[in-house]
Design brief:
single chain, 150 residues, alpha+beta, 8 strands, 19% helix, globular, binds cobalt (II) ion
């Protein structure tokens, strides 16, 4: 287990589309353990694979509701809207106001390849949307109506 270096905005790896995860092996588990250590150390709400330099469709989310690993996640339903502050471990020292769905239903696989459906709302839903954007090369600063330095 180790803390990985978090890639910062300007690096091309943050702007690419990630590829689906097909192999659920020990190597994947080690990556997830490192991402868990890293997001906890950096006190982030989430971390996506491109942020540690890897173009895999996976992200971790660490919020009030708990710690989650989402492999090949897809939003299958969304409802409502919320507007609020957001930050990103790859955009240090800034926050921005972003509109997101209030509720999302997510389909994803766990580290063993098992499929799950999860419903999230509020900040949890915001964190999921933010991390999923990373998997398509999108950063919150692309969507923010306003950005401030912290
Ligand atoms: Co981010």
């Amino acid at each position: 287990m180790a803390i990985r270096n978090v890639v910062q905005v300007g690096d091309d790896v943050l702007r690419q589309k990630c590829k689906p995860v097909e192999v659920f092996d020990e190597k994947l588990h080690l990556l997830l353990e490192d991402m868990k250590d890293t997001v906890k150390q950096e006190q982030g709400a989430g971390l996506a694979a491109p942020q540690v330099g890897l173009l895999h469709r996976l992200a971790v989310v660490d919020v009030e509701e708990g710690y989650f690993e989402f492999i090949n996640p897809v939003i299958i339903q969304q409802k409502g809207e919320q507007t609020g502050w957001e930050g990103c471990l790859s955009v240090k020292g800034k926050s921005g106001i972003v509109s997101r769905p209030m509720k999302v239903t997510l389909s994803y696989q766990d580290r063993f390849g098992e499929k799950h459906i999860l419903k999230a709302k509020g900040f949890f839903a915001r964190a999921i949307c933010h991390e999923l954007d990373h998997l398509d090369g999108v950063l919150y600063i692309d969507k923010a109506s306003h950005i401030e330095k912290n």
